[in-house]
Design brief:
89% of the residues lie in helices and 0% in strands. The protein has one helix and no strands. The mean pLDDT is 89.
Length: 62
């Protein structure tokens, strides 16, 4: 293998590694978005339940 061929092989490996790293980062962002959405839904449900309890204590039919 010539020096030039070795350099091209290294460049290709770096490019492939960068693409894989970008995919991993993209997947992590997607997972974080899904987690935040699920957390937001749970938080909203908790607040709704809390509001219903307050209304119940106030004698308002829920």
């Amino acid at each position: 293998m010539t020096e030039e061929e070795a350099f091209v092989a290294i460049e290709n490996l770096v490019t492939l590694t960068q693409k894989r790293a970008n995919r991993v980062i993209s997947d992590l962002h997607a997972q974080r978005f899904e987690f935040n959405a699920a957390y937001g839904e749970r938080e909203l449900a908790d607040k709704a339940a809390q509001a219903l309890r307050v209304l119940s204590r106030m004698g308002v039919a829920a």
